[in-house]
Every structure is written in structure tokens, then in C-alpha cells.
């Protein structure tokens, strides 16, 4: 089974310099981690709904 990801928290106000020169920016990292978390949540929801679906024998 895949490890469950924790929902990422956005960077604190003082984590970003606001200069736009950092590569990757702390916001880039946050958005990438949030995307992975959201995809995993969607997969888990789909699997749960599939498990609830009545079977036709």
C-alpha cells in the first residue's frame, strides 16, 4: 500500500522572500506537494466509492 501523504501547509509569510528569484520558490514546492496530496485523495475517494458500489453477479 502507498504511504498516505499529509496535507501540506502553505509556507509561512516569512518563508518567501517575494523577490521571484528563488528556483524553486517555496510556493512552487508547496503547490507540487499539494497536487500530489490532492491526487492521492481523489484516488482514495474513487477506490472507496468503488468498494461501496453494489456488485452484479
TrEMBL record:
Q: Which domain of life is it from?
A: Bacteria
InterPro entries according to UniProt: Oxidoreductase-like_N
Tell me the Pfam families matching this sequence.
Oxidored-like
Domain Oxidoreductase-like residue range list: 6-45
Protein name per the record: Oxidoreductase-like protein, N-terminal
